[in-house]
Structures are given as structure tokens and as C-alpha cells.
Amino acid sequence: MKPTHRIIERQEPGGEVNASQAELGARVGLSRNSANTAMALLESRNLVLRPQDRKYRTYYLHPYIASYATQEELEETVQDAAERIEAGELPEITAPPVRDRPAEATATDTAPSRPGRRITPTITPG
Predict the structure, then answer these.
(1) C-alpha to C-alpha distance for 51 and 74, rounded to whole angstroms
(2) Taking the complete model, does pTM exceed 0.70, yes or no?
(3) Using CA atoms, how far apart are residues 123 and 126, in angstroms rounded to an integer?
(4) What is the tens place of the pLDDT at every residue in 15-55?
(5) Are strands 16-18 and 58-61 parallel, antiparallel or unpaired?
(6) According to the 3-state scheme, what is the secondary structure of the chain?
């Protein structure tokens, strides 16, 4: 299971997560260093937020991905989050960088029998 799933499992309603990186990493079979790298990536995309006082073992899921005890709490929190983002008080979730699109596969790439051999379709008049 991915680190993000383990963080989501450990959250309290509203997105608070109380676990060290080592604990989260151990739950998914990651070393402390790998868990640290994964958390840094999640933080860089604003999926995981740290409190400003940087309390040890405390993280928050971005309000847009956190779970809530009730539908009403969800709606109120999402509305509040949108207003805080607009005011510059809460960062938006960022997407991973877009990589160059891979080249389309050609017949050469997909020919299983002879690598490098180009397959040319034969059209037989009917």
C-alpha cells in the first residue's frame, strides 16, 4: 500500500495525522530515509501540510483530500478551504510536473518476432 493510503488511514476526522515518518514508513515497508523522501514529495505538492509550529509527529492532509465525520463538516471545510486559498492563507494542491509525452508506438516497437524489423501491412485488392 502506498504511503498516501497509510496517512489517510491514520487520520482523524478533519485530516490530522499523528505518526512519525518512521512509523508511516514501517507500515508500508519503507526505510526511514525513503519515508522521509515520500513525505517531502507529498508536502511539496501540498497534499500533506505541517502545522506552522512544526510539531513532531503531526501532519495534516489538505482539506480537499481529508475525511470528515459528516457531510456538513465536509461542505463547510471545503468552502472555508476555498476561501483560505483565495486569500493566500492555504496553498493549493499542486500536480506533479508534466513529462514529455512518450512517442507513439510504431510497428517496429511492437513487432515481437524480429527486433528492428518494420512490419508493413499488405493490402490485397478484393
Answers:
(1) 20
(2) no
(3) 9
(4) 888 888 888 888 878 888 888 898 889 999 999 998 877 66
(5) antiparallel
(6) CCHHHHHHHHECCCCEEECCHHHHHHHHCCCHHHHHHHHHHHHHCCCEECCCCCCCCEEEECCCCCCCCCHHHHHHHHHHHHHHHHCCCCCCCCCCCCCCCCCCCCHHHHCCCCCCCCCCCCCCCC
